[in-house]
Specification:
- The strands form 10 sheets. A 4-stranded antiparallel beta sheet has the order 3-2-5-6, with no helix packed on it. Strands 10-9-12-13 form a 4-stranded antiparallel beta sheet, with no helix packed on it.
- The chain is flat and about 135 Å long.
- Strand 23 and strand 24 (312-317) form a beta hairpin.
- With 480 residues, it is an all-beta fold.
- The protein has strands at 18-26, 37-42, 47-51, 57-63, 66-74, 85-90, 95-102, 107-114, 125-130, 135-140, 146-149, 155-163, 175-179, 184-191, 197-203, 214-219, 224-229, 235-237, 244-252, 263-268, 273-279, 285-291, 302-306, 312-317, 323-325, 332-340, 352-356, 362-368, 373-380, 391-396, 401-406, 412-414, 421-429, 440-445, 450-457.
- 24% of the residues are buried.
Length: 480
């Protein structure tokens, strides 16, 4: 009632809430099943989990009108999970029951895992065979690591892994499995991850990597599983190997090195292993060839090794690591002379003296420098435009002509690669319409240098005389 004496009636309508029951039962006997876990969610997004009691029921009260979905996420012990998603529509005040039977028991589930972490593994293949040898089927594990056989007769079966997941060791030992009436049998089948063994080969004294060493990798039972050869980095790696103990032994030493008698053992688990072998060089000479500026190793350089009488004992060539090793030599003095430079480099023909002594490694390092070039850029002296077809003569310091070069449409010309030294560049023909430049351009070319001459030409000039009649201004021929 308000101040004016009026009376108002307020009516509030409430919608009664709904109830949802989930009934879980054995599909063959109708017996209630406890311990089943369900996920229940509404179309509006609410999500709940419930578990059936001893009477096989789970109850969710005070639900708003909506469409609900029921999914079994964990089956009762000894039963196979029902994969169906049930839909229940509830109206205000309504009570409804979702009846969820179990699929017929009597099945086999195999879960494939990694022995390292227990995580599921996809891609393993299993074959199930009856005790009389009849093949029931072959399946591959899914992303959850499972293969399943349902509705199979009770009795004994043989389960065999026929293919392991990539990177894992196959467990091919057959397993006898009993499948009973009204029971879902689940087996976990772990696999051990494979791993690799890397062998690293180095020079004992210089610690340089050594290529072309050969190793055998054997099991504890002396079964050969890998033959490895080290590359230019001094390393070699096996394929994926099963876990276990392995023996590694060198069978061929790099050229110029003593074969190692050492045998190393490795216990391979689920992570890669590495072993290092050191080689002792024979009484020889190691020649290291490097770029004179960057110090990078250079392959393809050839050397002569001479004795004190100048007799050539050996010719050797550097490998990918820039190293050449002579054969075994008697303790004495020797001379190393380069006879062929790597491609694109200037030959170093200076003799390098080296002494071989007992108990020490003789090493000589020889530097090479890249060949140099002369580049010419020819332009108009007035406009700066590039000029084509200017011809040049390149002479050495003695005046010998070593090359003729001509500018292209961009105004550029360049020599072939040249040894360092003094050179003279002279223009022998100017582009059409231009005066020749008679200047002798001197170039002092250093090791690995590129010298650019920026040269100009001046357009040619001419005098034109016209003879005409004084009165008529008509042109007259024949005047000298």
């Amino acid at each position: 009632e308000n101040a004016s004496g009026n009376v108002y009636n307020l009516i509030f309508n409430n919608s009664p809430l709904a109830n949802l029951y989930i009934r879980k039962y054995d599909e063959m006997t109708g017996a209630p099943l406890s311990g089943a876990v369900f996920r229940v969610w509404a179309s509006s997004g609410k999500d709940t989990r419930v578990t059936t009691d001893e009477q096989g029921f789970a109850h969710i009260a005070q639900l708003k009108a909506d469409t609900y979905f029921v999914q079994e996420i964990e089956a009762p012990t000894g039963y196979t999970k029902n994969e169906e998603v049930f839909t229940v529509k509830l109206e205000d005040g309504q009570t409804r029951t979702a009846n969820v039977p179990n699929k017929k028991p009597g099945g086999l589930a195999v879960r494939k895992t990694t022995s390292a972490t227990g995580e599921a593994l996809a891609g393993a293949e299993f074959k199930l065979t009856a005790i009389d040898g009849k093949v029931v089927g072959t399946q591959k594990t899914d992303k959850e690591g499972y293969v399943r056989w349902g509705n199979i007769e009770p009795g004994w079966y043989v389960l065999t892994e026929t293919k392991a997941p990539n990177g894992y060791t196959i467990n091919s030992t057959p397993m006898n499995v009993e499948v009973k009436d009204f029971n879902a049998t689940e087996i976990e089948w772990p696999n051990a991850p494979m791993a690799t063994i890397t062998v690293v080969k180095k020079d004992r004294d210089t610690n340089l990597p050594l290529a072309d060493a050969t190793f055998e990798v054997r099991t504890a039972n002396n079964e050969l599983v890998a033959t490895l050869r080290t590359d230019s980095s001094g390393s070699a790696t096996t394929k994926q190997l099963p876990q276990g103990r392995y023996k590694i032994k060198e069978t061929v030493a790099p050229t110029g090195y003593v074969l190692s008698s050492e045998e190393q053992e490795v216990e391979l688990k689920d992570t890669p292993e590495s072993v290092e072998f050191m080689n002792v060089a024979k009484q020889n000479i190691l020649i290291q060839k490097v770029d004179g500026i960057s110090k990078k190793p250079l392959a393809g350089a050839q050397f002569e090794v001479k004795d004190v009488n100048g007799r050539v004992l050996e010719i050797c060539e550097t490998d990918a690591s820039g190293v050449a090793a002579t054969k075994s030599l008697e303790p004495a003095s020797y001379t190393v002379v380069e006879r062929k430079a790597p491609d694109g480099y200037v030959l170093d023909n200076a003799p390098h003296e080296i002494k071989v002594e007992d108990g020490s490694q003789a090493v000589v390092t020889v530097e090479n420098f890249s060949k140099a070039v002369i580049q010419i850029y020819k332009v108009d002296s007035t406009s700066g435009d590039p000029l084509q077809d200017a011809e040049f003569e390149v002479r050495d310091s003695s005046g010998n002509i070593i090359e003729h070069i001509t500018t292209d449409k961009t105004g550029w010309a360049h020599t072939q690669t040249l040894p360092d030294g003094k050179y003279i560049v002279v223009e022998t023909k100017a582009p059409t319409g231009y005066s020749i430049d008679p200047t002798e351009h001197k170039v002092d070319l250093g090791r690995g240098e590129k010298t650019i001459l920026r040269l100009t030409n001046t357009p040619s000039t001419a005098l034109h005389i016209s003879k005409v009649d004084k009165e008529t201004r008509t042109g007259l021929a024949g005047a000298d």
